[in-house]
Amino acid sequence: MSKKISIKKIADLSGVSIATVSRVINNNGRFSESTKAKVLRVIKENDYTINAMAQGLRNQKSSTVGIVIPDLNNSFFADLVGKIEQKLFLKGYSTIICDTNRDPNKENGYLKMLESKSVDGLILISGSKTSDTSSIPHDIPIVCIDRQSQNQNIMYVGSNHYQGAVLATQRLIEAGTTPSLVTGSRISTSITDRIQGFKTTMIKKNLRLQETSIIKLTEEQDNSPDTRRQELRKILRKLLSKSDTPVGVFAISDALAADLLIAAHSLLISVPNELKVIGFDDSPIAKYCYPELTTIKQDTNKITDYASSYLISSMQNHENTLNGKIKLIDVSLINRSTV
Amino acid sequence: MSKKISIKKIADLSGVSIATVSRVINNNGRFSESTKAKVLRVIKENDYTINAMAQGLRNQKSSTVGIVIPDLNNSFFADLVGKIEQKLFLKGYSTIICDTNRDPNKENGYLKMLESKSVDGLILISGSKTSDTSSIPHDIPIVCIDRQSQNQNIMYVGSNHYQGAVLATQRLIEAGTTPSLVTGSRISTSITDRIQGFKTTMIKKNLRLQETSIIKLTEEQDNSPDTRRQELRKILRKLLSKSDTPVGVFAISDALAADLLIAAHSLLISVPNELKVIGFDDSPIAKYCYPELTTIKQDTNKITDYASSYLISSMQNHENTLNGKIKLIDVSLINRSTV
DNA sequence: TTGAAAGCGCTAACAT
DNA sequence: ATGTTAGCGCTTTCAA
Question: Chain B closest CA to A220's CA: distance in Å?
């Protein structure tokens, strides 16, 4: 039961004061090469590691950041989290993960906990709605991803969802369809941006928005793959019956697009001849669709690069010079085989 | 720039000593109802939150656990992490996530960091090989998932991979095939267990293990979906040409099974008539395969239940009563449409 | 029922 | 170049 060793023990063992040990650990202040060597040796021999809680208490910083996400099972979020965590670790930060499961109460609980743990920064990813900011820790840098906050002082980075929708809609129109947009039951700022991009493009191309232009699944329908597919079959039948040109669908996510493709398959609708589909995200599933899914790719590398460097720089210049900054990341159309 | 408020401030504001404040916060020791009310009110008014670093330093515990995984992009791992995190949060622990990207050096770095942060417990998920235990923090409870450790004193929980392979192999045999097993380039204790289950079942059923019984992709082939599928096509052609009964394949993961199905599709091989496939994991992709993938389901609810309650109980009875415990979780065969 | 004070492990200001 | 010490915010023993 080897108790954990403290700086004091190291000081005794190397015959110097704790101040000196602290200096060599932090490579700060001056000390002779010989003491440095000695102390370092003792540290290694006893494999001493600094006590981050004591250090944090003293320095008023934890070298920890919190990351709040709606759902780790969503591969897009998991991707973001993984990348951010890796980048932060390289800079000496550890990250506490908080999966809110889209529950606002839970989110509040997490925020309280994170404040209590004195996180140096916060990354807030998406989320149904911009939660009541009351429980947001005071005075620490925050960057939001895909979650617009009314609070002006929060940095924002996210894909240019609007642009993505424009790209998709244009492509579908160029392919000779009068596209419809199909969306799930969930709503968020990124979703509304996409819908807006769709609408604007339709109008710009002189296509009238009809009843079937924007189709929204109910929560119940969206609940499981099976109910979703069933509904999607109905939708497809209706769409196909109304049109003698190919039908185009911009699906709000790759998951939805994949379900759509399955529904089409079971209806013996041929893709991309009778039906053309574009998804959003370029999630791993896109390459497992049949045919492989044409989609809008979100550049998670860039998103996480910006997010983490924003956060780091504003954690370091404690004055937050980047307040209110907004960064929109370009998306791109990945041409595969569903258009 | 409202500085964070401390217990001292609360004490002053409520006209009591810090000791009393501490007592009411922790609901411990005795104090009058009236002081309790007063203190609580002041706390609420100033929305004070306890400083976890100070508390941790004093109590020698951080209420934090570390969770080390090979790859957050793998949906199976992400699932585990999400579930564990949620369960731990309910019990008052926050979790630091460490995505090693399968890099042993990085893993060591993470372990050092976690030790430094004084995590109260550790969850180690899978990983290529049981890493050199040298940098594992001393004397804290650890539970491994899908990672057998030579260290006797570490709890283990994982699926019964052997049983899963037996189930799959039997099913394939009963369906009239002489199954082959196809595996990726990666190796781990769970994979070897599955291979063992396959072999044993083959032998028990009086089927000879041939050259084509166990097929292993090289790292290069396994590198991208495209190279993988190309190789899988070769394999399928060979397998189909050798047999005039249906061909059965037990794929070591759902991802591999999905690639196999795609390869089969492009070869116009009909599933499940000419080819029968069983995967492993029941990952989200299984329901997006065409036909929907028959697979072995790992019960991540049970796995994470055991893992988190083992960990919690041994963090609480500081004496680790559960040392060396091993828990194998049953898997089940999910019948869908590829057999 | 409440308060005073020591001490968890560390850093930095001040002294030498 | 190195040592002494106060204090970060908390809990807990001891005293009142």
Answer: 19
Nearest CB to B49; choose among A62, A96, A112 = A112
Closest residue to C5 measured CA to C1′: B19
Q: Which nucleotides of C are covered by protein (CB under 7 A)?
A: 1-5, 7-13
Q: State percent of chain A over pLDDT 90.
A: 87
Give the pTM: 0.95
Q: Between B53, B98, B117, which is nearest A118 by CB?
A: B53
Q: Among residues A322, A330, A313, A328, which one has the least CA distance to residue A154?
A: A322
Judged by a CB distance cut-off of 8 A, whether residue A321 touches chain B is no
CB contact under 8 A, A53 and B49: no
C-alpha distances out from residue B197 to A279, B200, B326, Å:
40, 5, 19
Smallest CA–C1' distance to C6, residue: B58
Cross-chain residue pair A288–B287, CB shorter than 8 Å:
no
Per-residue pLDDT tens, chain B, 339 aa: give them: 467 899 999 999 999 999 999 999 999 988 999 999 999 999 999 999 999 999 999 999 999 999 999 999 999 999 999 999 999 999 999 999 999 999 999 999 999 999 999 999 999 998 755 555 667 887 899 999 998 776 767 899 999 999 999 999 999 999 999 999 999 999 999 999 999 999 999 999 999 999 899 999 999 999 999 999 999 999 999 999 988 899 999 999 999 999 999 999 999 999 999 999 999 999 999 999 999 999 999 999 999 999 999 999 999 986 665 566 899 999 999 999 999
